[in-house]
Amino acid sequence: MGAERDGARRDGVIYVPAKYTPASPAPLVVMLHGAGGSAAGGLRPFEGLADERGFVLLAPDSRAMSWDIRWGSFGPDVAFIDRALARVFRACAIDPARIAVEGFSDGASYALALGLANGDLFRRIVAFSPGFLVLSDPVGKPGVFVSHGTRDEVLDIDRSSRVIVPRLKRAGYEVQYKEFEGGHRVPPEIASEAATWLGAV
């Protein structure tokens, strides 16, 4: 994967678990970093879980400081993710029934937007501390896992997940929702619970 933006390279990371074998198609998780972050940071929630769970991880860099939907519509980030997915599908045997998208903060909002618009591809969505919900032209009914800290100092839970989750449920989505005592982060136990939920597909 590779792209240039304003002279600075923005690329991505593909992580293949140690126990991967082409004879056994693997689950794939597309992992989306928060605003101002990078692919390496995007991997962090499942970094220690991929080998245990057998996940292939794809962590792209956003083209700008955050994901394009923040400025109103899908754009260059979707095109880059499409190219990255094509590369993963060429390189690895992936189980089409176990493809998920995950994100943290702005990446969580983007995971929701991308996952709900492409529910025929992404069977499950994990949103760690999302800030907003774009629910337009949804496809399918992917399962959704949302977590949020009750003392989040960046994205107040009362104005984000406690609004987002009821909207998703009213729209007919099955949602697993976890609140935890803490701030703007992904606690290891929440990441592990989300990974278990993904593995149950």
Give a nutshell description of this structure.
By secondary structure, the chain is α/β, with parallel strands linked by helices.
Topology:
Layout (H helix, E strand, L loop, with lengths): L3 E2 L2 E2 L2 E4 L10 E7 L6 H5 L6 H4 L2 E5 L15 H16 L2 E11 L1 H12 L6 E5 L14 E7 L11 H10 L4 E6 L7 H12 L2
Strands of the largest sheet, in order across it? 3-5-4-6-7-8-9
Q: What does the largest sheet look like?
A: 7 strands, mixed
Unreliable stretches? 1-8
Q: What number is the mean pLDDT?
A: 92
Q: Give the % helix.
A: 25-40%
**Tally of DSSP helical segments:** 6
Distance between the termini: 28 Å
Counting copies of identical and different chains, the oligomeric state is single chain
Binned strand content: 15-25%
* Overall body shape: globular
- The SS-based structural class is alpha/beta
Main traits of this protein?
alpha/beta, 201 residues, Rossmann fold, 6 helices, globular, seven-stranded mixed beta sheet, two-stranded antiparallel ribbon
